Amino acid sequence: MSAVARRNAKPIDGKPNERAGPVLIIEMELRFKKHYTREEARAMLPEIRRWLERLNRLRKDVEKFEQRLSRMAAQNYDIGGETVNDWIRALADMQEVLVEFQRREIIIKDLDRGLVDFPAIIGGREVFLCWESDEDDIEFWHDLESGFAGRERL
User: Which parts of 9-149 are beta strand (E)?
Assistant: First the structure.
C-alpha cells in the first residue's frame, strides 16, 4: 500500500477551495476488479445455487461417460460415436457454467460442499465474503489467504 498526500484539493466544479487541507489518497493493490457488497453477493445466491447444482449434475455425467469410455477402450472397442459426443457436450456445458463464475470473479473453493468466495472490501482490506450452499445467507468473511479456517462472522 502507498499513501499520497495531495494539497490544494479542488471540488468537482474545479474551483480552488481555500479551506481544503491535505487529502490522503490510499492506493491499494487489488487482486480482483469486482468487489461485492453483502447485498450484491446475497442477490446472487439463487443463481449461484442453480449453477452449483448444474455443475454437480454435469460432473456426474462426465464421470459416467469417462467410465464408459475407459471400459470401451479396455475392451478395444471403437470409442467414437455417441458416448464421446455426450462426454464432449457435458464438458462444454460445464465450461459454460464455469465461465459465469469466472467473469464475475466468484471463486468456487469446493464444488462438493458448494463453498464459494466473493471478493469484497471490508475495513479497507480486500477479503472474501464466504458462503457454503447449506447456509441460508452470507454470514462470514475471511482474509484472502486464510481460507475457510479463518472465517469470521460479519
Answer: 23-27, 107-110, 115-122, 125-132, 140-143
Classify residue 116 by its DSSP letter.
E
The crossing angle, in degrees rounded to 10, of helices 38-74 and 82-104 is 160
Measure the CA–CA gap between 59 and 56, rounded to whole angstroms: 5
Q: How confident is the model at residue 79 (pLDDT cuts 50, 70, 90)?
A: confident
Question: Which pTM was predicted?
Answer: 0.77
Single-letter amino acid code for the residue at 127: V
Separation CA 120–CA 72 (nearest Å): 48
Residue pair 105/117 in contact by the 8 Å Cβ criterion? no
Which distant-in-sequence residues (6+ apart) come within 8 Å of 79 by Cβ? Answer: 69, 72, 73
**Beta-carbon contacts of residue 98 (< 8 Å; ≥ 6 apart):** 55, 108
Phi, psi dihedral angles at 9 (to 5 degrees):
-60, 140
Of all residues in the chain, what percent carry a pLDDT higher than 70? 82
Cβ atoms of 120 and 36 closer than 8 Å = yes
